[in-house]
Amino acid sequence: MSEKTTKVKRIMELLADKEMTSLELAPLLGITSGNCSYKLNVLYNDKRIRRVKGKKPYKYKIALTPKELLKRLYDIMDNRMKKKEVLTAEEMEYLIEIEEVLKID
Questions:
Q1: Structural domain spans, the chain
Q2: What is the DSSP letter of 1?
Q3: Could you tell me which InterPro entries the record lists for this protein (predicted)?
Q4: pTM score, two decimals?
């Protein structure tokens, strides 16, 4: 496995545990924050990770797969039909993520 692949794999492992910025990830990877930002942008453009809303430095987290998003959407819709309650913050976050995935460039 190449060093590049290893760094990307390690970024994905670290982001699976919690949201992090390039400044937080770089020392854990032994690379500069600029190099880390580049790797994060590649992963972001490939839709493998997503940015958490906010100001720079951005926090990143693992993006859900389309299958996971559909499952969450189904669960939200199913619960809403049964209860007729207001959406939770977590449900709203998933709906926003689904909307972002569906945006056509």
A1: 3-62, 66-102
A2: -
A3: ArsR-like_HTH, WH-like_DNA-bd_sf, WH_DNA-bd_sf
A4: 0.66
Q: How many CB atoms lie within 10 A of CB 35?
A: 14
Chain-centroid distance of CA 52 in Å reads 7
Long-range contacts of 43-49 (CB under 8 A, 24+ apart): 43/8, 43/11, 43/12, 47/101, 48/12, 49/11, 49/12, 49/15
48-103 tens-digit pLDDT:
998 887 778 899 998 877 788 788 888 878 777 777 667 788 888 888 887 877 77
Gap between the Cα atoms of 12 and 48, Å rounded: 9
* Alpha helical stretches, state H, the chain: 3-17, 22-29, 33-45, 66-83, 89-102
CA gyration radius, the chain = 16
- pLDDT tens sequence across 30-54: 999 999 999 999 999 988 998 887 7
Q: What is the identity of the amino acid at 45?
A: N
